[in-house]
Design goal:
Length: 199
Amino acid sequence: MHLKKIEIRGFKSFPSKTEIIFEQGITSIVGPNGSGKSNVSDAIRWVLGEQSIKSLRGDKLEDVIFAGSENKKPMSFCEVALTIDNKDGILDIDYSEVTIKRVAYKSGESQFYINNKSCRLKDIKELLLDTGIGKEGYSIIEQGKIDEILSGNVSSRRKVFEEAAGISKYRYKKEEGEKNLKITKENLSRICDIYDEIE
Ligand code: ATP
Protein backbone atom coordinates (compact mmCIF):
# COMPACT_ATOMS: atom_id res chain seq x y z
CA MET A 1 0.00 0.00 0.00
CA HIS A 2 1.36 3.43 -0.85
CA LEU A 3 0.17 6.93 -1.47
CA LYS A 4 -0.03 7.35 -5.26
CA LYS A 5 -1.24 10.87 -5.73
CA ILE A 6 -2.98 13.84 -4.24
CA GLU A 7 -5.23 16.22 -6.15
CA ILE A 8 -5.90 19.60 -4.60
CA ARG A 9 -8.30 22.27 -5.80
CA GLY A 10 -9.25 25.42 -3.92
CA PHE A 11 -7.46 24.29 -0.75
CA LYS A 12 -5.46 27.07 0.96
CA SER A 13 -2.81 28.36 -1.50
CA PHE A 14 -3.90 26.02 -4.36
CA PRO A 15 -6.73 27.68 -6.36
CA SER A 16 -6.17 25.70 -9.58
CA LYS A 17 -6.27 21.95 -9.75
CA THR A 18 -2.86 20.69 -8.61
CA GLU A 19 -1.80 17.06 -8.86
CA ILE A 20 1.20 15.63 -7.02
CA ILE A 21 2.26 12.11 -8.01
CA PHE A 22 4.17 10.05 -5.45
CA GLU A 23 6.30 7.37 -7.08
CA GLN A 24 7.62 4.42 -5.07
CA GLY A 25 10.48 5.57 -2.84
CA ILE A 26 11.08 9.03 -1.51
CA THR A 27 9.40 12.19 -2.82
CA SER A 28 10.60 15.58 -1.61
CA ILE A 29 8.61 18.77 -1.94
CA VAL A 30 10.89 21.77 -2.03
CA GLY A 31 10.18 25.46 -2.39
CA PRO A 32 10.77 28.87 -0.86
CA ASN A 33 9.28 29.88 2.47
CA GLY A 34 5.55 30.40 2.26
CA SER A 35 5.20 28.62 -1.09
CA GLY A 36 2.75 26.04 0.25
CA LYS A 37 4.80 22.97 1.24
CA SER A 38 3.10 22.57 4.60
CA ASN A 39 -0.27 23.21 2.94
CA VAL A 40 0.25 19.88 1.11
CA SER A 41 0.55 17.96 4.40
CA ASP A 42 -2.39 19.99 5.77
CA ALA A 43 -4.40 18.87 2.71
CA ILE A 44 -3.51 15.21 3.41
CA ARG A 45 -4.60 15.47 7.06
CA TRP A 46 -7.74 17.38 6.09
CA VAL A 47 -8.92 14.79 3.55
CA LEU A 48 -8.28 12.04 6.13
CA GLY A 49 -10.79 13.74 8.40
CA GLU A 50 -8.91 16.33 10.45
CA GLN A 51 -11.66 18.34 12.14
CA SER A 52 -9.49 20.71 14.14
CA ILE A 53 -8.96 23.87 12.08
CA LYS A 54 -6.36 25.03 14.65
CA SER A 55 -4.16 22.05 13.87
CA LEU A 56 -4.48 22.97 10.17
CA ARG A 57 -3.14 26.38 11.15
CA GLY A 58 -6.44 28.21 10.65
CA ASP A 59 -8.96 29.97 12.89
CA LYS A 60 -12.26 29.23 11.20
CA LEU A 61 -13.63 26.55 8.91
CA GLU A 62 -13.37 28.59 5.71
CA ASP A 63 -9.64 29.24 6.30
CA VAL A 64 -8.89 26.04 4.37
CA ILE A 65 -10.60 27.49 1.26
CA PHE A 66 -8.53 29.66 -1.10
CA ALA A 67 -9.05 33.24 0.10
CA GLY A 68 -8.05 34.98 -3.13
CA SER A 69 -4.87 36.69 -4.33
CA GLU A 70 -3.91 39.66 -6.46
CA ASN A 71 -4.84 37.83 -9.68
CA LYS A 72 -7.37 35.30 -8.51
CA LYS A 73 -10.79 35.62 -6.92
CA PRO A 74 -11.54 33.81 -3.66
CA MET A 75 -13.12 30.39 -4.08
CA SER A 76 -16.36 29.16 -2.58
CA PHE A 77 -15.30 25.54 -2.14
CA CYS A 78 -12.27 23.29 -1.94
CA GLU A 79 -11.62 19.63 -2.62
CA VAL A 80 -8.79 17.23 -1.92
CA ALA A 81 -8.56 13.67 -3.25
CA LEU A 82 -5.99 11.14 -2.09
CA THR A 83 -5.35 8.02 -4.16
CA ILE A 84 -3.87 5.01 -2.38
CA ASP A 85 -2.53 1.91 -4.12
CA ASN A 86 -4.21 -1.08 -2.47
CA LYS A 87 -2.92 -3.95 -4.63
CA ASP A 88 -1.72 -5.73 -1.47
CA GLY A 89 -5.24 -5.51 -0.03
CA ILE A 90 -4.16 -3.88 3.25
CA LEU A 91 -7.23 -1.66 3.10
CA ASP A 92 -10.25 -3.84 3.75
CA ILE A 93 -12.11 -2.89 0.55
CA ASP A 94 -12.51 -4.70 -2.73
CA TYR A 95 -10.52 -2.25 -4.89
CA SER A 96 -6.86 -2.23 -5.92
CA GLU A 97 -6.91 1.56 -5.86
CA VAL A 98 -8.79 3.66 -3.33
CA THR A 99 -9.55 7.37 -3.66
CA ILE A 100 -10.62 9.24 -0.57
CA LYS A 101 -12.09 12.66 -1.29
CA ARG A 102 -13.36 15.52 0.83
CA VAL A 103 -15.22 18.57 -0.46
CA ALA A 104 -16.13 21.61 1.65
CA TYR A 105 -18.12 24.74 0.87
CA LYS A 106 -17.91 28.19 2.43
CA SER A 107 -21.50 27.71 3.58
CA GLY A 108 -20.16 25.05 5.97
CA GLU A 109 -21.35 21.94 4.09
CA SER A 110 -18.81 19.19 3.73
CA GLN A 111 -18.85 15.71 2.20
CA PHE A 112 -16.54 12.69 2.14
CA TYR A 113 -16.27 10.13 -0.67
CA ILE A 114 -14.62 6.74 -1.08
CA ASN A 115 -14.11 5.93 -4.77
CA ASN A 116 -16.60 8.67 -5.68
CA LYS A 117 -19.33 7.19 -3.48
CA SER A 118 -20.46 9.55 -0.78
CA CYS A 119 -19.72 8.25 2.72
CA ARG A 120 -19.41 9.27 6.36
CA LEU A 121 -16.22 10.30 8.11
CA LYS A 122 -16.78 7.19 10.25
CA ASP A 123 -16.40 4.99 7.10
CA ILE A 124 -13.03 6.58 6.33
CA LYS A 125 -11.90 6.21 9.93
CA GLU A 126 -12.86 2.51 9.92
CA LEU A 127 -11.20 1.89 6.53
CA LEU A 128 -7.90 3.36 7.74
CA LEU A 129 -7.80 1.80 11.21
CA ASP A 130 -4.49 0.04 11.97
CA THR A 131 -2.84 1.30 8.77
CA GLY A 132 -1.09 4.26 10.41
CA ILE A 133 -2.55 6.65 7.80
CA GLY A 134 -5.57 7.91 9.67
CA LYS A 135 -5.58 11.51 10.80
CA GLU A 136 -4.14 10.38 14.11
CA GLY A 137 -1.82 7.84 12.49
CA TYR A 138 1.93 8.12 12.63
CA SER A 139 2.47 8.35 8.88
CA ILE A 140 2.42 12.14 9.05
CA ILE A 141 5.17 13.34 11.33
CA GLU A 142 5.02 17.10 11.40
CA GLN A 143 7.17 19.55 13.35
CA GLY A 144 6.87 18.85 17.07
CA LYS A 145 5.16 15.46 16.62
CA ILE A 146 8.12 13.41 17.91
CA ASP A 147 8.37 15.67 20.98
CA GLU A 148 4.62 15.31 21.48
CA ILE A 149 4.85 11.50 21.39
CA LEU A 150 7.87 11.40 23.72
CA SER A 151 6.52 13.87 26.23
CA GLY A 152 2.89 12.73 26.04
CA ASN A 153 1.21 10.65 28.70
CA VAL A 154 1.37 6.86 28.74
CA SER A 155 -2.09 6.34 27.24
CA SER A 156 -1.51 8.64 24.23
CA ARG A 157 1.88 6.96 23.59
CA ARG A 158 0.21 3.58 23.90
CA LYS A 159 -2.23 4.56 21.11
CA VAL A 160 0.68 4.98 18.67
CA PHE A 161 1.98 1.49 19.47
CA GLU A 162 -1.51 -0.01 19.28
CA GLU A 163 -1.99 1.49 15.80
CA ALA A 164 1.38 0.05 14.68
CA ALA A 165 0.62 -3.34 16.24
CA GLY A 166 -2.74 -3.47 14.46
CA ILE A 167 -4.93 -3.62 17.54
CA SER A 168 -6.62 -0.21 17.49
CA LYS A 169 -9.32 -1.78 15.30
CA TYR A 170 -10.27 -4.07 18.21
CA ARG A 171 -10.25 -1.21 20.72
CA TYR A 172 -12.52 0.77 18.34
CA LYS A 173 -14.88 -2.19 17.88
CA LYS A 174 -15.00 -2.75 21.65
CA GLU A 175 -15.89 0.92 22.23
CA GLU A 176 -18.56 0.80 19.50
CA GLY A 177 -19.95 -2.42 21.04
CA GLU A 178 -20.07 -0.83 24.49
CA LYS A 179 -21.92 2.20 23.09
CA ASN A 180 -24.50 -0.05 21.37
CA LEU A 181 -24.89 -2.10 24.55
CA LYS A 182 -25.59 1.07 26.55
CA ILE A 183 -28.22 2.22 24.01
CA THR A 184 -29.84 -1.24 24.02
CA LYS A 185 -29.97 -1.25 27.84
CA GLU A 186 -31.63 2.18 27.83
CA ASN A 187 -34.18 1.02 25.22
CA LEU A 188 -34.87 -2.11 27.23
CA SER A 189 -35.39 -0.07 30.36
CA ARG A 190 -37.87 2.21 28.49
CA ILE A 191 -39.74 -0.82 27.15
CA CYS A 192 -39.98 -2.22 30.70
CA ASP A 193 -41.38 1.15 31.94
CA ILE A 194 -44.00 1.20 29.15
CA TYR A 195 -44.84 -2.45 29.79
CA ASP A 196 -45.34 -1.71 33.53
CA GLU A 197 -47.61 1.25 32.66
CA ILE A 198 -49.78 -0.86 30.32
CA GLU A 199 -50.10 -3.77 32.73
P1 ATP B 1 7.75 27.45 5.25
O1 ATP B 1 8.87 26.92 4.42
O2 ATP B 1 8.01 28.87 5.70
O3 ATP B 1 7.29 26.55 6.35
P2 ATP B 1 5.65 26.58 3.42
O4 ATP B 1 6.20 26.39 2.04
O5 ATP B 1 5.45 25.37 4.24
O6 ATP B 1 6.50 27.65 4.23
P3 ATP B 1 2.90 27.07 3.85
O7 ATP B 1 2.88 27.36 5.30
O8 ATP B 1 2.43 25.74 3.38
O9 ATP B 1 4.31 27.39 3.24
O10 ATP B 1 1.99 28.12 3.06
C1 ATP B 1 1.81 29.43 3.51
C2 ATP B 1 1.14 30.21 2.41
O11 ATP B 1 -0.17 29.71 2.21
C3 ATP B 1 1.02 31.68 2.79
O12 ATP B 1 1.50 32.44 1.69
C4 ATP B 1 -0.45 31.89 2.97
O13 ATP B 1 -0.87 33.16 2.56
C5 ATP B 1 -1.03 30.83 2.05
N1 ATP B 1 -2.38 30.47 2.48
C6 ATP B 1 -2.77 29.82 3.59
N2 ATP B 1 -4.10 29.71 3.66
C7 ATP B 1 -4.59 30.30 2.54
C8 ATP B 1 -5.89 30.53 2.01
N3 ATP B 1 -7.00 30.10 2.64
N4 ATP B 1 -6.01 31.17 0.84
C9 ATP B 1 -4.91 31.61 0.17
N5 ATP B 1 -3.65 31.42 0.61
C10 ATP B 1 -3.48 30.79 1.77
